Structure to design on (363 residues):
């Protein structure tokens, strides 16, 4: 006997069982179902090896983490809460020494040391030998297929430290002190008010519209700042270009091992710009007390107010020296110029191993 089944009747018969299978994860946990954890206290730490993290403003008294599991082994993750070093801590525990994360590119991997209490990163036990088991996060090659994406809401005035091995971090409109420690992850922030400390082993960092002291430290990755106001602003990267625009600070410091530095619309009386290899261009406005620019190899262009008064020391091993200012010269050679501009109240020192130097008036 032949039975005819229409496409509609086939879908009607199988649709609901298939949906039930697709929504089920090992252990019976529904897929994409967010778990909610409140973390009491003004000082909070959150540890998660793998995943994407969003940090946003929150209401109420507590920091809240909404956790969404992913991967075929997601049910094996454990969430732990306790106090560590005086801070309330939320930890996502990964019961494996190898974790697979499909969003990593082929061939890439990151290794971190995970301590017995599930923490990693930071400066704990810096005076001791590396502690904890070695965990490798890789794009392919097997391992625990699990990650946890987090949405963290932060009430005004809290201090939150986030530790992440692999993934990415996005912060928006938080009013509180934040410390972000990531082994390999791009970090973007916007609209923050409070101290912001970003430490990334590898990954680009972008900070926009930040009010408060800022520190960015990355082993490798470009750094971009715009619309930043803070008493102290510092950037340190082992390798990567640094760009900054519309920065207001009492003290700005930028140091890159290799990469160009480009600064525009800068208001800061104390400025230090240094790169091992790369060009430096800076447009500095307002009163200047102490400006230091140094590059191992690359041209330097420093634009300053036409009313500048400073003692100047300009040196290049190979390249020309040009200035728009009248200088009362105390020493003048092809590669070295010292003297005074105006009343000499400030100090400007510029040095390049190889490259031309221009000291010009901004508009």
């Amino acid at each position: 006997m032949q039975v005819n089944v229409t496409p509609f009747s086939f879908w009607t018969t199988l649709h609901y069982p298939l949906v039930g299978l697709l929504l089920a994860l090992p252990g019976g946990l529904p897929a994409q179902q967010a778990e909610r954890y409140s973390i009491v206290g003004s000082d909070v730490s959150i540890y998660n090896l793998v995943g994407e993290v969003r940090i946003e403003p929150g209401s109420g008294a507590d920091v809240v983490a909404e956790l969404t599991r992913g991967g075929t082994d997601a049910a094996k993750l454990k969430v732990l809460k306790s106090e560590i070093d005086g801070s309330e801590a939320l930890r996502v525990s990964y019961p494996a020494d190898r974790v697979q994360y499909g969003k990593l590119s082929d061939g890439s991997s990151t290794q971190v040391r995970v301590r017995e209490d599930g923490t990693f990163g930071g400066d704990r036990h810096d005076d001791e030998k590396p502690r904890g088991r070695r965990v490798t996060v890789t794009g392919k090659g097997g391992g625990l297929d699990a990650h946890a994406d987090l949405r963290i809401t932060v009430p005004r005035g809290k201090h939150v430290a986030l530790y992440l091995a692999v993934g990415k971090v996005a912060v928006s409109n938080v009013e509180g002190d934040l410390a972000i420690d990531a082994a390999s992850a791009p970090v973007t922030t916007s609209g923050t008010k409070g101290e912001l400390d970003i430490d990334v082993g590898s990954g680009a960092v972008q900070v926009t519209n930040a009010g408060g002291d800022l520190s960015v430290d990355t082993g490798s990755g470009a750094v971009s700042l715009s619309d930043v106001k803070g008493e102290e602003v510092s950037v340190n990267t082992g390798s990567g270009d640094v760009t900054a625009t519309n920065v207001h600070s009492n003290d700005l410091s930028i140091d890159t091992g290799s990469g160009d530095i480009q600064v525009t619309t800068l208001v800061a009386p104390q400025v230090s710009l240094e790169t091992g290899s790369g060009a430096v261009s800076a447009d500095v406005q307002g009163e200047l007390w102490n400006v230091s620019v140094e590059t191992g190899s690359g041209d330097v262009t420093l634009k300053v107010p036409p009313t500048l008064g400073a003692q100047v020391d300009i040196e290049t091993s190979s390249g020309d020296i040009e200035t728009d200012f009248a200088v009362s010269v105390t020493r003048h050679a092809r590669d070295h110029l010292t003297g005074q501009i105006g009343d000499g109240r400030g100090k400007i020192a510029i040095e390049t191993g190889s490259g031309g130097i221009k000291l010009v008036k901004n508009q």
Summary: Confidence is low (pLDDT under 50) at residues 1-29. The first strand starts at residue 35 and ends at 39. The CA atoms of residues 301 and 358 lie 5 Å apart.
